[in-house]
From TrEMBL:
It comes from Vreelandella nigrificans. InterPro entries: PhnD. This is Phosphonate ABC transporter substrate-binding protein. Residues 1-26 form the signal peptide. Keywords: Signal. One of its GO terms (biological process) is transmembrane transport. PANTHER family: PHOSPHONATES-BINDING PERIPLASMIC PROTEIN (PTHR35841:SF1). Belongs to the phosphate/phosphite/phosphonate binding protein family. Pfam families: Phosphonate-bd. One of its GO terms (cellular component) is ATP-binding cassette (ABC) transporter complex.
Length: 325
């Protein structure tokens, strides 16, 4: 893959100066917008664990779902070893739930059918506010760095060499809850380039990052906004090859998938689950094999209030609100 001169320098911790100027009017520490189903008495922006023990959930089988960015069948195998570890740590049966869409994963959480999950970056605020999700971990490299970049890609020979060339062409997004697949590029194109979806370029929604990538490679879409971590993994598995698509824009670094639990799990069980993430041995595992090419080698602690601040700012810049009730 080639990155043009329009790509931005990468940063692990700060949003780029250009995008920062766009979001300056949006409060970085946006106030929580929790559904009325939940309370946040401790002010950490996520749903509190119920004080009434009768509301705690202690299922015989824990249901786990990974964000549906790629083929669910592939990821059932990737997560199998970790789920065995989780089963041993909790004494519970653990079932992998192969969700087909972000909406299906969100609804499963909200309906109480999902206990442990990894939600995509843009979906985390929805899960927190509307489903009572309590995120606590993220994948990171050995030195503790983490994250991914949003890229706008096109196929070689498309005639699109810069972001400005998207005028009058088609750009594929993934879903409206995706950070890199919709919200971040929408804000970027509007603020930095004066390009408005539907007016200046046509749009399509592919449903997932892998669909967007394959759509560009097969010339179904002129261009697409993707998470580059997904592209890296697809290349490592031979699904696509280096040079199958060109990169015309690379963003600042964003946090990647957040892992957490439903807010109403029995506290002892929730703690066992959290401990299982941080005690998992990656060496020689299927997780290591799958995620090593994008740098991940461990789980590290995160908080929604701190680590999702930039994502909430992007959502504010797009006028996103949560009508959870």
């Amino acid at each position: 893959m080639q990155s043009s001169c329009f790509s931005h320098p990468l940063s692990r911790t700060l949003i780029s100066a250009a995008v920062a100027s766009t979001f300056a009017l949006a409060a970085v520490n946006a106030s929580a917008d929790l559904s009325s189903r939940y309370v946040d008495n401790d002010g950490d922006m996520v749903a509190d664990v119920p004080t009434d023990e009768s509301q705690w959930v202690d299922p015989n089988t824990l249901v786990f779902a990974y964000t549906p960015v790629e083929d669910p069948a592939v990821y059932a195998d990737v997560w199998a070893g970790f789920l065995d570890h989780l089963s041993e740590a909790t004494g519970k049966r653990v079932q992998f739930f192969p969700v087909q869409s972000n909406a299906a994963q969100q609804e499963a959480l909200r309906a109480g059918r999902l206990h442990v999950a990894g939600f995509n970056t843009g979906g985390v605020p929805v899960a927190v506010n509307c489903g009572g999700f309590r995120p606590f971990a993220i994948m990171a490299s050995e030195d503790g760095s983490y994250g991914y970049e949003m890229e706008i890609i096109t196929y070689p020979g498309s005639g699109i060499e810069s972001v400005e060339d998207l005028q009058g062409r088609q750009l594929a997004f993934t879903s409206e809850t995706s950070n890199s697949g919709f919200r971040a590029p929408s804000a970027l194109l509007r603020s930095e380039y004066g390009l408005e979806a539907g007016d200046d370029f046509e749009t399509a929604f592919s449903g997932s990052h892998d669909n967007s990538i394959l759509g560009v490679v097969n010339k179904d879409y002129d261009a697409a906004a993707i998470a580059n971590s997904v592209g890296t993994r697809m290349i490592s598995r031979g699904v696509v090859n280096e040079g199958d698509y060109d990169i015309i824009y690379t963003s600042e670094t964003f946090p990647t998938t957040a892992y957490g639990v439903a807010h109403n799990l029995k506290p002892e069980l929730a703690q066992q689950i959290q401990d299982a993430f941080f005690s998992y041995d990656w060496e020689g595992s299927a997780l290591e094999a799958e995620f090593a090419n994008s740098g991940e080698a461990q789980f590290i602690p995160i908080t929604y209030a701190e680590h999702w601040s930039v994502i909430r700012t992007i959502a504010d810049a797009n006028g996103v609100t949560y009508d959870c009730d």
